[in-house]
Every structure is written in structure tokens, then in C-alpha cells.
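RECORD TYPE: inverse folding
INPUT: C-alpha cells
STRUCTURE:
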């Protein structure tokens, strides 16, 4: 049986997951440690924290566990391919202030489209 969920609910789940996990303080405060990572390869703590928050929010929005996993993996991979860690953190900051960054919406819509594949 296929679970149907609205695009706004999925986008909300992605956005809420992104803003609910701002990342470990050390990734922001320690530029030396950050520079050792590939430019768009986020530290494992950021990725795992995002995935955990995203999967919880997506499941709460009505996705199955497998759909939530697929959506969240898709979004973090797209974020890493398009945004440096600093850019991702800045968008998270903006989102926590009530703005909805276009990058989050674009990635959410792309990954939403891939759920049916």
C-alpha cells in the first residue's frame, strides 16, 4: 500500500528537520577541524543528527520508515552537493528565524519527486 502525503507536509518535515538540528558546536566554532573535511562533505555528526531529526519529522508527517529514510538521505546528499557546511548552517540559522530558504524548498521538492521512483 502506498502512503500518500502532501508536498507541503514533506517540505515542512525537511525544513523542520534542518532547523531542529543546527549541528555540533565544534563544527561551527573550530574552523581548523572544518577545513579538514571536503568542502561539501559535512562532519558525520552533522549528517547523522540531520538524518535522525529528518526521519522523525518525516515519519510524524505520515511517511513510512522506508520513505522517510529515502527522503532524508536524498535531501542531505543534495545539500552536501550544493552547499558548503557554512552555507548549510547559515540557511539553518535563517530558517530558525522564520524564513524558508529557497534551497530547502528546491531540495525538498526534488526529493519528494523521487519518492515515487
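DESIGNED SEQUENCE:
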Amino acid at each position: 500500500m502506498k502512503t500518500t502525503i502532501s508536498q507541503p507536509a514533506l517540505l515542512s518535515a525537511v525544513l523542520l528537520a534542518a532547523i531542529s538540528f543546527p549541528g555540533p558546536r565544534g563544527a561551527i566554532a573550530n574552523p581548523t577541524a572544518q577545513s579538514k573535511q571536503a568542502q561539501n562533505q559535512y562532519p558525520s555528526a552533522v549528517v547523522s543528527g540531520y538524518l535522525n531529526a529528518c526521519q522523525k519529522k518525516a515519519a510524524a508527517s505520515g511517511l513510512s520508515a522506508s520513505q522517510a529514510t529515502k527522503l532524508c538521505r536524498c535531501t542531505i546528499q543534495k545539500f552536501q552537493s550544493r552547499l558548503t557546511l557554512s552555507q548549510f548552517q547559515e540557511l539553518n540559522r535563517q530558517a530558525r528565524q522564520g524564513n524558508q530558504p529557497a534551497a530547502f524548498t528546491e531540495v525538498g521538492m526534488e526529493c519528494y519527486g523521487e519518492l515515487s521512483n
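NOTES: The radius of gyration is 14 Å.
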